[in-house]
Specification:
two-stranded antiparallel ribbon, alpha+beta, 21% helix
């Protein structure tokens, strides 16, 4: 039994996990698309990675994260940071919709 537990939790055999605080790989998206809407779906782990990446748009509260009211004016200037927050979210609950109706890729 102990051998099975060691093997199961061994770093050699454990599945790779993405950490919320690690920086996400830069994804190149078409520059002509503008962000129309940003929201956070249920399931946030409250890791604070989104707020650390883009504090102009995201705020972490005690039990969930939110998109700040009125932050739409920051969408143009903060596009890269918003996209990186969405891509870097370890539970993929940050959603970004563009003005053409398409959604940003989910990590």
């Amino acid at each position: 039994m102990i051998a099975w537990v060691k093997r199961f939790f061994s770093t050699d055999t454990a599945p790779a996990r993405k950490c919320c605080v690690q920086s996400a790989a830069k994804v190149q998206l078409p520059p002509d698309r503008r962000i129309a809407k940003v929201w956070i779906e249920d399931g946030c782990l409250i890791c604070n990675a989104c707020e650390a990446t883009c504090p102009q748009v995201f705020k972490t509260l005690d039990d969930h994260a939110i998109v700040l009211a009125g932050s739409e004016s920051s969408f143009v200037d903060c596009r890269d940071a918003i996209e990186q927050a969405a891509i870097g979210c370890c539970v993929a609950v940050i959603r970004v919709q563009y003005d053409d109706g398409s959604l940003a890729p989910i990590s």
